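PROTEIN DESIGN WORKSHEET
SECTION A - STRUCTURE
LENGTH: 319
C-ALPHA CELLS:
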C-alpha cells in the first residue's frame, strides 16, 4: 500500500508537466484558429485530475453534531497544541477557529474530490452542460483549498475563512444547476418509454439523493465554521455556530407554518389551518435552519395539495 502510494506520488509531477505542455500547445492552436471569435481557454483544473483521483480514494471523516458543538465550544483544544509562536499568543477563540480551519483544510479536499468523481459517474447526466458546470465548480473549489496555506496562525486563518466564504456562496447555486440538468434530460425524450427506463430513472434518483446528502454535509461543515467567526449570540442563546443545543421542534414548526401559510395565501388567496399535537415541550441539539427548511417544503406541498383538492371538489370555485 505504501509503496504504491509513493510510486503514484512520484509519477504525478512528470504527468502534470506533460499535460501542461500539451495543454499549452492545444491552447496556442485554438487561439490562432479562432482569432476572429475568441473562445474561453480550458481551465487548468483539468490538470488536477490526478490529485482529485488521489483524494477521492481517501475516506471521508464522519463528524457528528456533538463533535461540532464540543469543538466550537473549545472543549477539544487540548487535542490541537499551538504550532508556532503566533498561534501560542492567540486567544482561546482564535485557537478554536484555527483548529476547525485546519480540519477543514484537510477534510474538504477529500469531500470535494468524492463529489467530482460522483459527477463524472452520474448515469445519463454526466455529459450535460449543467452537470459539467457543477463538476468544474467543485474542481475549482478543490484547487483553491489545496493551494491555500495551512491555516495554523491567525493571519492564515483569516485568509482561509475568506476563501471558504467565497466557496460557500459560489456553491449556493448547485441545487438549481442540478435541477436544470435533470430537466434537460427529461426534455431530451430519452425516457419516453417510462416502463422500459424505470430502472434507469430510479438509478438517477438514488444518485441524486446521495449527492444532495453529501452536499449538505459539506455546507454544514463550512457554514458552522463561518458562523463560529461571527459575533456570539451570548451564553444564554444556546447556540454554538449554526447549532442550537436546545432546538424546539414545535417552535421551528410554528415559524414554518406561518411562512407556508403566507406563501399559500399569496398564491391561492387562502390557506388551510394547521394544528399541533403531541409533546410540544421537547428540545434537542440540531440546526434549526435546516429543520425549518425541511418543514417548510413539506408544509408548502401539503397546503398546495389541500387547496387544489378542495377547489376541484367544489368545481373550481373559490369557496
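SECTION B - SEQUENCE
RESIDUE ASSIGNMENT:
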Amino acid at each position: 500500500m505504501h509503496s504504491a502510494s509513493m510510486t503514484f506520488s512520484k509519477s504525478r509531477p512528470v504527468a502534470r508537466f506533460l499535460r501542461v505542455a500539451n495543454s499549452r500547445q492545444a491552447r496556442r492552436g485554438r487561439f490562432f484558429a479562432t482569432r476572429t471569435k475568441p473562445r474561453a481557454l480550458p481551465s487548468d483544473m483539468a490538470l488536477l485530475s490526478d490529485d482529485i483521483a488521489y483524494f477521492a480514494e481517501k475516506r471521508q471523516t464522519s463528524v457528528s453534531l456533538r463533535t461540532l458543538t464540543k469543538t466550537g465550544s473549545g472543549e477539544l483544544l487540548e487535542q490541537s497544541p499551538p504550532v508556532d509562536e503566533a498561534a501560542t499568543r492567540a486567544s482561546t477563540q482564535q485557537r478554536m477557529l484555527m483548529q476547525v480551519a485546519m480540519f477543514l483544510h484537510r477534510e474538504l479536499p477529500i469531500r470535494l474530490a468524492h463529489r467530482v468523481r460522483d459527477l463524472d459517474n452520474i448515469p445519463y447526466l454526466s455529459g450535460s452542460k449543467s452537470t459539467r458546470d457543477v463538476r468544474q465548480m467543485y474542481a475549482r473549489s478543490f484547487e483553491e483549498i489545496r493551494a491555500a496555506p495551512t491555516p495554523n496562525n491567525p493571519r492564515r486563518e483569516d485568509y482561509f475563512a475568506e476563501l471558504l466564504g467565497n466557496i460557500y456562496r459560489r456553491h449556493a447555486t448547485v441545487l438549481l444547476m442540478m435541477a436544470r440538468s435533470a430537466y434537460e434530460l427529461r426534455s431530451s425524450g430519452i425516457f419516453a418509454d417510462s416502463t422500459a427506463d424505470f430502472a434507469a430513472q430510479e438509478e438517477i434518483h438514488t444518485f441524486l439523493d446521495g449527492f444532495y446528502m453529501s452536499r449538505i454535509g459539506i455546507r454544514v461543515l463550512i457554514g458552522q465554521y463561518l458562523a463560529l467567526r461571527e459575533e456570539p449570540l451570548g451564553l444564554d442563546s444556546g447556540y454554538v455556530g449554526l447549532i442550537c443545543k436546545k432546538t424546539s421542534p414545535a417552535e421551528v414548526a410554528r415559524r414554518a407554518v406561518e411562512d407556508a401559510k403566507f406563501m399559500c395565501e399569496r398564491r391561492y388567496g387562502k390557506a388551510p389551518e394547521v394544528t399541533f399535537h403531541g409533546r410540544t415541550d421537547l428540545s434537542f441539539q440540531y440546526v434549526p435552519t435546516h429543520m425549518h427548511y425541511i418543514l417548510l417544503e413539506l408544509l408548502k406541498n401539503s397546503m398546495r395539495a389541500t387547496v387544489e383538492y378542495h377547489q376541484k371538489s367544489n368545481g373550481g370555485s373559490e369557496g
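SECTION C - NOTES
The beta strands are 239-240, 243-247, 284-286.
The CA atoms of residues 10 and 93 lie 40 Å apart.
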